[in-house]
Amino acid sequence: MTIVVSVKYVLKPGKRDELLSFVMDNVKNTRKENGNLAYSHYPSLENEQEMFVFEMWETLKDLENHINMPHYVAFDDRRKPLLESYEAQVYEATLCRSTNKAPRAN
């Protein structure tokens, strides 16, 4: 079962550059973890305080292991004082159907 995680967090005003100065170390280390299929942080183009994170994991256990990794714990401890808000959603990804055409509204 593949796990998909979407995270939106809002930084305190003026904290974006500080976050960007250390976020890539966490991204690089996370991508090396067992079970990681995708992991990226995306700064908003429209609001400099907003960040979006997209993650994919082979299993829920892989995700649980990730949040206890020393590099992630250090990253999270450093990021927490910069945050105004944080919201995460975890999904079980299952293929409902396969198509070779883009969906369109009727």
TrEMBL record:
Coiled coil: none annotated. InterPro entries: ABM_dom, AI-2_Isomerase_LsrG, Dimeric_a/b-barrel. It comes from the Bacteria. GO terms for molecular function: monooxygenase activity. Pfam families: ABM. Keywords: Monooxygenase, Oxidoreductase. Residues 3-91 form the ABM domain. PANTHER family: ABM DOMAIN-CONTAINING PROTEIN, QUINOL MONOOXYGENASE YGIN-RELATED. This is Antibiotic biosynthesis monooxygenase. It comes from Bradyrhizobium icense. The lineage of its organism: Bacteria, Pseudomonadati, Pseudomonadota, Alphaproteobacteria, Hyphomicrobiales.
